[in-house]
Amino acid sequence: MFANSRSVTSNQTGIHSDLDRVVRRHLQSPWRAPIADHDAQAFARLQQWRQAQGAERALILDSGCGTGRSSLLLARQQPEALVVGVDQSAVRLERASKRFQLPDNLLLLRADCAGLWRLIAGEGWQLQRHQILYPNPWPKSAHLKRRWHGHPVWPTMLSLGGELEMRSNWLLYLQEVRDALAISDIHAELSQLPMQSEPLTDFEEKYQASGQVNWRLTARL
Length: 221
Description:
The protein has 221 residues and is of the alpha/beta class. It is 38% helix and 17% strand. The chain contains 8 helices and 7 strands; from the N terminus they run ααβαβαβαβαβαβαβ. The protein has helices at 19-28, 37-53, 69-77, 90-99, 113-122, 154-159, 171-183, 202-209, and strands spanning 59-63, 82-87, 106-110, 129-133, 163-168, 188-192, 215-220. α1 packs across α7 and α2 (37-53) packs across α5. It is globular, with a radius of gyration of 17 Å.
């Protein structure tokens, strides 16, 4: 049952016809939606933790970290940096704390990424690295604005800076991200992950076991 992940299916066969219009509109119009209380509380916790650990240390964000597997790998690989894994599911994050021994330089935080990104940007913090691994691709054509590159938070995400890495088992998703970055005057590289590469997430491991190709996009923001 493990290697039974189905490929993404969509009624969209190419880059969305509205992509350019949507991205440019968001680049020109700051998003002013209210910040949710739970996101403000999560950010306050992050501020306190960062101050206690050393605010001068590089900051790495793992957005949509799920069960924290990728965040743990990052924290082990970058012991001098502070790694923050963010997910909106308390259940997934609790699973991480039971599954792994978390190092001191790792904080797993329950928050909505869009709200937390805006709060981080509001403080002028800059990231060393930002990874978004296997986000929900929202494959229906009507759902373009739910994808990160079609969301009004897109300019805020770009403003956080750092090395961006995104992964997906749906090539079209990352092709759209690449085009959205180009519209934003940022160059990105897109490549296929080797089938035998070490999986960073449970999703990636399952996709590999199901024989699916995984894709990787990188850019310097």
